[in-house]
Specification:
Number of strands: 9
CATH superfamily: 2,3-Dihydroxybiphenyl 1,2-Dioxygenase, domain 1
Radius of gyration: 17 Å
Order of helices and strands: EHEHEEEHEEEE
Distance between the termini: 38 Å
CATH class: Alpha Beta
Number of helices: 3
Number of domains: 1
Oligomer: single chain
Strand content: 35-45%
Length: 146
């Protein structure tokens, strides 16, 4: 059977520093499209805990091309200590945004106090790349096609 997958609807990111994570994505141009506290039987089933509670924000990238869902769990509580994640560890470790004017974005985001964790890299004369680290170990890669 062939499936028709059109696109990714959204990427879910669990955070402890909800407001910090929201601000981090806003610095890259994301807009909050909805925010709410959630308690439901569905959440109980998905989390596997009776009485699960969460705080969620749906955020949209400029031009509506990427959507993320930030989630902070109130019950069970999202752990406050996150081991430093590295790009080579298992699981989803970063989000790469295809951008125009990577240098302009870097300047703007650095002025907002964001940590650039690499120099700008020319990757095989195909991409200009760099990486930022945000709250809770979130890593955003910027890639500008050369």
């Amino acid at each position: 059977m062939t499936y028709k997958v059109h696109t990714i609807d959204h990427i879910g990111i669990v955070v402890h520093d909800f407001d910090g994570a929201k601000a981090f994505f806003e610095d890259f141009g994301f807009i909050t499209r909805g925010e709410q506290f959630e308690e439901s039987e569905l959440l109980d089933k998905v989390v596997g805990v009776k009485g699960a509670k969460s705080h969620i924000a749906f955020m949209e990238a400029p031009h509506a091309q990427i959507n993320i869902e930030l989630t902070e769990f109130i019950h069970p509580m999202t752990p406050s200590v996150v081991e430093a994640n590295h790009i080579y560890t298992q699981g989803i470790q970063h989000i790469c945004l295809a951008v125009e004017d990577v240098d302009g974005i870097i300047e703007s985001v650095k002025q907002k106090g964001r940590e650039l964790i690499t120099d700008v890299i020319n990757y095989q004369d195909i991409y200009k790349l760099c990486y930022f680290r945000g709250p809770d170990g979130i890593i955003i890669e910027l890639a500008e096609k050369l």
